[in-house]
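User: Can you predict the 3D structure for this chain?
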Amino acid sequence: MEAYLIESQFYSADPQLADREFDMAALSAQVFNLVCRTDHSSCGFALIMLPADFGSQKQRRMMVALKEGLSALHSAARGLPLEWFNMIRFDQKNTTKPHRDAAPAESLLILGYEPSEVKSRLSMYDYSARSVARGITPEQFLEDFNPMYTQAYERGLAELADFAWDIDCFDAGTYQILVVNNSCTAYSKETPKWQGVLHSAVVENSPGSRVINSTCVAPQADFAVVEEEIIAKFLNDDTLAGSNY
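Assistant: Here is the predicted structure, written as structure tokens:
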């Protein structure tokens, strides 16, 4: 099993129950150890594989429960809860270059991929580790080698060639949750901060929907927290909409 892959493990006492529940405490701990890193000993992302019949609303409920589990662990470790920065539900069929989403300097993406006939491939790039190897900060790396920019694309990919993972087990035909450390903070043993990775997707140009339930969380800070009614809409409304802040 790949180091970042968490296959669907059920912990219900009665395996005959149709609506079995995950042990969210155990799952949150696995994800936290892989993703919420302050050094480069883990990969900075985790892929949770779910059954093909899992269901969209159940996936979204699980994403919210996972956020609460990660928040509890972060509160215990650093004294701060995690807050919702945004929640977005959309049909995304654009190929994206390696990038970090616009968000606080320390942040996590919790992305729920629904089954789709549109083929796609995901990759991760440990630009934080590459920054340390170069003796610069991740912020400086993005200024000098940001592969999102056309003029730096080839140089950026060359810099990250030994720090890249293709997520070969990603399966567009089933439900999955991908958690990504989206941070851009300098490495420090004295004042540990989350160490982020870049992510990219190559998406096939074909008919059909590719629905992503996209959320971002960050340690409690000076930003507008998503309100409860927006969370309720995210959980229960199946329409595809824009960004909810």
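Residues 10-18 have pLDDT under 50 and may be disordered. The longest strand covers residues 82-91.
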